[in-house]
Amino acid sequence: MHNFIKRQLFYRILILIIILFYIPNNAQSNTRFAVIGDFGLAGTAEEDVANLINSWNVDFIITLGDNNYPDGKASTIDENIGQYYHQYIYPYVGSYGEGSDVNRFFPSLGNHDWRTNPPQPYYDYFELANNERYYDFVWGEVHFFVIDSDTDEPDGVSENSVQGQWLQNALSTSISTWNVVYFHHPPYSSSSNHGSQEYMQWPFKNWGGTAVLAGHDHTYERLIVDDLLYFVNGLGGKSKYSFSNPIPGSQVRYNSDYGAMLVEANQDSITFKFYSRANDLIDTYTLLNNLSGVEPILINTFILNQNFPNPFNPSTKISFQIKEYGFVTLIVYDVLGNEVDTIVNENRPIGSYEVDFNASNLPSGIYTYTLTVGNYSDSKKMILLK
C-alpha cells in the first residue's frame, strides 16, 4: 500500500510539472497584436476602435502613424493617445489612469506628428529604442522594424539613406520567423487622396521582409506587389478617404467604417485580419511558414488539381489550394449529376490540402468533383475503372 501511494504521488507531481512548464511554453509561442493607423483624434470613432482592440486582449499594439492630430503638440498628445491606450504604455506619463508594467505600445511617426518639428512631444511621451524615430523589437516569432517615412526624417527616407541601410542591415541579421516592417506613408495605395508613395517603394522583399504595413490613406487595403504582402490601414478614427481605380496588385479595399487589424502569429503561420469597429470581419489573410528557412509561402489563388492516379481503382487523391478562410465543400457527382459523396464540408483556413477519395462502393464510370469556396467554384472529371 505504501508503494502504491508513492507511485500515485509521483504521477501527480509529473502531471503538475507538465502543466506548469510544457503547456505555458507552448502557449507563449502565439503572439496577438493590434494594428491602428491615423487614429489620434479624441472622439467617438477613436473610442470605438479602442474598445474593439481592448476586447481582443492583445499582447501589444503597433501604430502606423498620425498618433496625435492635428499638429503633434504636447497639449493634445495625452488626450489623443493616453485617454484610450494608457494601459499599454510604459512608462506612462499622462493622467488617464495606470500605465503598463512593460511597454506594449509601439508607434511610428506620421506627418501630423512631425508638424511639431522636431517631434519633441512624441519623444517625451514615449520611451522607445534606438533614436525613437526608427527602431526594432522582437515579440515571439515576429521581428518588427519601425521606420520613419516622413520626409523630415534627418537620416533620410530613400533606400540608400542612413535609415534605409539601417533597415537592410537589421533585416539581414534577423533570425525570426516573420519580419514585419511598418511606417506611415504607403508604398502602394489605391486611394484617391494620397495614393502610392514611390519614394517608399524600397526592396523590402529582397532585404528579407515578410509584410509591409502603412497608413496615411484613411482606408483599408490589402495588396500583393512583386510577391510581397502590403497593407494600408488608416481607419483608426480620424476620417475616411475614397478610392480611385484599383492599382495593380490590389486584392481587397474597404472604407465604409473605422476599424483595426488583429494579427496572430506563431512558428507555422501569421494571419492578418481587419475588423470594423462593429467587430465585423472584413478581411483575413494568412501566410504559411514553409519551414525551409527560405521565405514564407504566399498563397494568393484558388487551385483545384487533377486527381492522381487517374484512372483509379478504388482510391485516388485530390489536392487543392484556397487563398482565404472560408466554408469549403468538395463534392463528387456521377454522370447524371447525382451527388455520390461529400469529401469536405467545413470551414478551413488558407492553405494547401490533399484528401483521399475511396470509390469502393461505386461502379465504374466517369465522375465529377467540384470544389466550392465562397464565390469560387471549379470542377474536374475523374475515371473509375474496376
Account of the protein in words:
This protein has 386 residues and is of the alpha+beta class. The chain folds into two domains: 260 residues, Metallo-dependent phosphatases (Purple Acid Phosphatase, chain A, domain 2, 4-Layer Sandwich); 82 residues, Macroglobulin (MG2) domain (Immunoglobulin-like, Sandwich), CATH 2.60.40.1930. Helices cover 19% and strands 32% of the residues. The protein contains six helices and 20 strands. It has a seven-stranded mixed beta sheet with strand order 4-5-6-7-9-8-10, covered by helices on one side. It has a six-stranded mixed beta sheet with strand order 3-2-1-11-12-13, covered by helices on one side. It has a four-stranded antiparallel beta sheet with strand order 17-16-19-20, with no helix packed on it. Strand 8 and strand 9 form a beta hairpin. The chain is elongated, with a radius of gyration of 25 Å.
Secondary structure: elements and pairs:
Blueprint: H1 2-27, E1 31-36, H2 44-56, E2 60-63, H3 74-85, E3 105-106, H4 120-125, E4 135-139, E5 142-146, H5 162-172, E6 178-182, H6 204-207, E7 211-214, E8 220-225, E9 228-233, E10 250-254, E11 259-265, E12 269-276, E13 281-288, E14 303-304, E15 315-322, E16 326-333, E17 339-348, E18 351-358, E19 365-373, E20 376-384
Parallel strand pairs: 1-2, 2-3, 5-6, 6-7, 7-9
Antiparallel strand pairs: 1-11, 4-5, 8-9, 8-10, 11-12, 12-13, 14-15, 15-18, 16-17, 16-19, 19-20
Structural class by sheet pairing and helices:
alpha+beta
Count of discrete domains = 2
> Low-confidence stretches at least 5 residues in length (pLDDT < 50)?
14-28
Discrete helix count = 6
CATH topology of the largest domain: Purple Acid Phosphatase, chain A, domain 2
Radius of gyration from the CA trace? 25 Å
Strand order of the largest sheet: 4-5-6-7-9-8-10
Intertermini distance = 63 Å
Helix content: 10-25%
The CATH class of the largest domain = Alpha Beta
General form: elongated
Name of the CATH homologous superfamily of the largest domain? Metallo-dependent phosphatases
In the CATH hierarchy, the architecture of the largest domain is 4-Layer Sandwich
Write down the overall mean pLDDT.
91
Major sheet size, sense and barrel closure: 7 strands, mixed
Query: What is the strand tally?
Result: 20
Strand content: 25-35%
Q: What is the element string, with H for helices and E for strands? A: HEHEHEHEEHEHEEEEEEEEEEEEEE
